[in-house]
Design goal:
Aminoglycoside 3'-phosphotransferase, Chain: A, domain 2; 2 domains; 8 helices; 40% helix; 13% strand; globular; disordered N terminus; disordered C terminus
Length: 291
C-alpha cells in the first residue's frame, strides 16, 4: 500500500502510516470525530515505537484513477457529497481552540476542519456508496466552500478534455456539480462563488507545488516534471472559459433560480490569497492512499 508520497503498511485490521509535525492535530481531530459518533473516518489506536500511527483499515474500494464505473456512478457522487457534509458538521465544534499545529494554513474564515483533499482516491466505497474518508494529513481549519470546491473539481469532475482523470462534457460535468451541491446542501451564495473558488483552489495548489519543489522536495519536483501543474492550469482555463455553463446548472436548474430561496449550508466566501493547496495526488503513478 502507498499513501500519497508516503509508505503505509497494512497490519491485520489496521494500517500503519508515517507521522509528522502535524500528526498531534490530526489525532485530536480523529478522536473528536469518534466522540461525535462520526463513523466515516478511521479510528486512531495510537503510535508505534518507530513513529507510525495505527489506524483502522476501512474495507472497500478506493477510487483510484482511472475511475471505475462504480466510483463514477451517480450514487457515489451523491453519497460523497453527503459524507463530506456530515464530516464538516461533525467538526464545527472542534474549530475553536484548535487553530494551529496543522500541516498547512487554509483560507479564512475557519468554519470547519477541512479535509483539504476530498477526492475519490481518499474515499472508500462499499459498492457504489462512499462510506469512509482516509488520509487526514492535510486537514486544517477553513471555510466549507474551500473543501466543497476541490471535491466538486474531483468528483464532478470539472476537468479539461486533456486531463485523463476526468470525463464528460462541460454540460455533464456541470450537472454533476449541481447534484453534488444539492446533496451537500450548499446555499446560493456558495454556488455563486463555486467556480471562482475552484480556480482559486487550483491556483493555490500549483503555487504550493512550485514552492515545495523550489525548497528541494523531490516529490514535488517529480510532479512538476510529469506536468501536473500544466494539467491544473489547463483545468483552470477550461473553467474560466465556461462560466455560463456551470452557472446555468448551479443556479438555474430546470428553470428554477436557486437564489430565489431555499435553505442550505451557508458557505462563506473564501478570503483570497491566504490558502495553499493540498499535496497533489499522482494519477499517473498509481499511488493510492493509506487507510
Amino acid at each position: 500500500m502507498r499513501g500519497g508520497v508516503n509508505e503505509v503498511r497494512r497490519v491485520g485490521s489496521t494500517v500503519h502510516r508515517p507521522t509528522g509535525p502535524w500528526s498531534p492535530a490530526v489525532h485530536g481531530l480523529l478522536r473528536h470525530l469518534e466522540r461525535q459518533g462520526f463513523g466515516g473516518a478511521p479510528r486512531l489506536y495510537g503510535v508505534t515505537d518507530d513513529g507510525m500511527e495505527i489506524l483502522d483499515f476501512i474495507p472497500g474500494q478506493v477510487g483510484e484513477y482511472p475511475l471505475t464505473t462504480e466510483v463514477a456512478s451517480s450514487e457515489a457522487l451523491e453519497s460523497a457529497a453527503e459524507l463530506l457534509a456530515a464530516y464538516h458538521d461533525a467538526t464545527v465544534g472542534y474549530v475553536t481552540g484548535h487553530e494551529t499545529g496543522w500541516m498547512m494554513p487554509a483560507p479564512a474564515p475557519a468554519e470547519v476542519i477541512l479535509h483539504n483533499d476530498y477526492a475519490p482516491y481518499n474515499c472508500v466505497l462499499d459498492g457504489t456508496r462512499v462510506v469512509g474518508i482516509i488520509d487526514f494529513d492535510t486537514a486544517a481549519p477553513g471555510p466549507r466552500l474551500w473543501d466543497v470546491a476541490y471535491a466538486v473539481y474531483r468528483w464532478a469532475p470539472t476537468t479539461a478534455p486533456g486531463n485523463g482523470s476526468g470525463f464528460g462534457t462541460a454540460e455533464e460535468q456541470a450537472a454533476r456539480a449541481r447534484v453534488f451541491c444539492d446533496r451537500y446542501g450548499l446555499d446560493a451564495a456558495g454556488r455563486s462563488a463555486l467556480v471562482d473558488t475552484i480556480t482559486a483552489r487550483l491556483t493555490a495548489l500549483v503555487d504550493f507545488m512550485h514552492t515545495r519543489a523550489a525548497a528541494g522536495e523531490a516529490a514535488f519536483r517529480c510532479h512538476i516534471e510529469e506536468g501536473h501543474d500544466r494539467l491544473y492550469r489547463d483545468d483552470i482555463a477550461y473553467l474560466e472559459e465556461r462560466p455560463a455553463v456551470f452557472e446555468a446548472a448551479l443556479l438555474h436548474w430546470g428553470g428554477q433560480d436557486v437564489r430565489a430561496g431555499g435553505a442550505g449550508r451557508t458557505a462563506a466566501r473564501v478570503r483570497a490569497g491566504q490558502g495553499v493547496g493540498a499535496v497533489p495526488h499522482s494519477e499517473e503513478s498509481g499511488d493510492g492512499p493509506g487507510r
